[in-house]
Amino acid sequence: MLKSLARSSTVLATAVGAALIGTAALAQSGVTPPDVSGLQSVNTPPAQEAAPAPALGAVAAVVNDDIISDYDLRQRMMFYLMTTGVRPTQENLPQIQQQALASLVDERLELQELRKMEKTQKFSIISDDAEVDAQIGQIAKENNLTLDSLKAQMARAGVDISTLREQIRAQTSWQRMIRGRYGSRIRIGQSQIDMQLSRLKATAGKPQYQLAEIYIDPQRAGGMQEAMNGAAQLVTQIQQGAPFPAVARQFSSAPSAASGGDMGWVSQGELPAELAAAAEQMAPNSLSQPIQASDGVYILYLRGKRAGSASTLVNLKQAAVQLGADAPADKIEAAKQTLASLQGKGLTCDNLQAEVGKVPGVVAGDLGEADVNDLSGEFRQAAESLPPGQLSPPIRTAVGVHALMVCGRRTSDAQLPSSKEIENKLLGEQLTMVSRRYLRDLRNSATIETP
For 151-199, what is each residue's pLDDT tens digit? Predict the structure, then answer.
């Protein structure tokens, strides 16, 4: 178990000082600290003041005899500050330090486990330097940077590129192992897919929210109250200008952290009750306060809100008398009486066209399938309210008088995911659960000490 994360005031001051110098250099050049999507291409002058020399001999933690130095911890804290734009304060520094140390501990445990596997299985699992360099190069390319300019920008913030390298190495290697080892063992049955599809259909008509999330795991935070306190500090930092996606990437324990917390559009019925209740009360482009749920603490950012995506499709047939917009009132009234007389004649969707064709001056036709939202006026009202097989009262339009019959009604599944998409989503959720449990067991069995 991880012992107290309390650190000496000297180490704290050193970390804060270095972070302030790094962010001050960016501020002097007029550059906003980078967002989670990557580092912006800038030409900033070097910092006027050098960061304090690291205390290379000091120890922040020992993980199964593997040392995490104060320098490692300081670098990770500064990396968090640089990528999130969070301003270090006396209030939030302990949380930043705890998150940084917890991440380093997890990465050490992951790499230790992967090395054991490599010895026993005789094949490579851990990403080599070439793979890590390729990923860093891709990050630079996506943000219109060269590898050298990326390194230079990190150096101006006092962060060595090796901090990013080791984080990428641990994360990608661990994810590859989990998918490779357990991906083929997890079976997503058709019944699970059908059940999920049924739930999606049932909630398709409910409000939908475009959400982003930050999830604070109480096991990593030291308990539910600590998770609530930490989330409250993150909310304050985001309100003061720290980009939500950047904070999510570094502090969230949810799978969505990799995409800056983005959850996309989700229906009300897909969310846990606590989150659904909070989202219902939020306005677009607003941030929630910390939300305590059964599994941890969440912060939500609501980007947008819309009505349910389900569409009601109706198959319509009609009996009609053709009359122009300038038809006299007596002919309109006569047409209405003729169509009204058809009610109670035993007309059905199967015999409507044949029977109506026998009535002089009345034509029948199949209008096909239509979305009720595309219908107007009394046509829409009839399509929504008529029981199937019942003829509507006469409806006057610019081209005639009509009586409608609904011959089918269904909910459109056009916006629902395919079975394969549902299968992949369920598999991803299962793999995430396996990864969390695996790492939790490693923590519980490890010897982790802090001075």
Answer: 898 998 899 999 999 999 999 999 999 999 999 899 999 999 999 888 8
pLDDT at residue 248 greater than cutoff 70 = yes
| Closest to 38 in 3D by CA, of 142, 135, 131 | 142
pLDDT band at 2 (very low <50, low <70, confident <90, very high): very low
Q: What are the residues facing 312 on neighbouring strands?
A: 411
Considering the domain architecture, whether residues 171 and 271 belong to the same structural domain is answered as: no
Residue 158 one-letter amino acid: G
**Within 10 Å of residue 448's Cβ, how many Cβ atoms?**
18
How buried is 370 (Cβ within 10 angstroms: 0-12 exposed, 13-18 middle, 19+ buried)?
A: middle
pLDDT band at 8 (very low <50, low <70, confident <90, very high): very low
In this structure, is residue 192 part of a structural domain? no
CB 416 within 8 A of CB 201: yes
In a domain, 227, yes or no: yes
Q: How far apart are CA 184 and CA 295, in angstroms?
A: 27
74 and 167 part of one domain: yes
Alpha-carbon distance of 16 to 35, in angstroms, equals: 20
Residue environment code for 245-260, b if the CB has 16+ CB neighbours within 10 A, otherwise e: bbbbbbbbbbbbbebb
Average pLDDT, stretch 78-90?
84
Q: Which residue has the tokens 């990864």?
A: 435
- Quote the CA–CA distance of 450 and 233 in Å, as a whole number: 24
**What global pTM score does this model have?**
0.62
DSSP state of 206: S
Cα separation, 450 vs 5, in Å, equals 7
Whether 424 is in a domain gets the answer: no
**pLDDT above 90 for 446:** yes
Contact call for residues 14 and 227 (beta carbons, < 8 A): no
The CATH number of whichever domain residue 346 belongs to comes to: 3.10.50.40
